[in-house]
Amino acid sequence: MSRTIDFLKQHESNAPSRFQENAEWRRENREWLKWSRDVTLSLVDYMETNEINRNGLAERLGVTPQYVSKILSGKVNFSYKKLQEILLNIFPQLIMYNLQVRLYISLKFLG
User: Fold this and answer.
1) Smallest Cα–Cα separation from 55: which of 69, 75, 70, 73?
2) Contact at 8 Å (CB) between 91 and 99?
3) Is 71 buried (19+), middle (13-18) or exposed (0-12) by CB count in 10 A?
4) pLDDT tens-place string over residues 66-94
5) Residues 28-38: tens digit of each pLDDT
C-alpha cells in the first residue's frame, strides 16, 4: 500500500462520522446561523471601532470575558433575551434608527 493509505488507516477514527447529521443541522439552521454570524461580526467591528478588547466588551455587556469568547467563537446559542441585552447595551442608536425606518416604511407604504 501507499504511504498515504497507511497513514490514513493509522489515523482512522473509531467513532462514526457525524458529517451528514451536522450538515443537515447547518442546512436547517442556515438563516439563524447567518444572523448569529452577523451579530458576532458586528461585535468585532464594535470592538475595533472603539479600540476595546474582549474584557472591555465584556464589561460593557455586563458578562464575563469567557462568555464574550464563546460569543466570538460562534459557540453561543443566543436566547432572544440575551440578544436584546447585547443590542440594547451596544447598539441603542442603531436600534432606534431601525425602528424609525420601519415606522416610516409602515406609514408611507402600508398606512
Assistant:
1) 69
2) no
3) buried
4) 989 998 887 777 776 777 777 777 777 66
5) 988 878 877 88
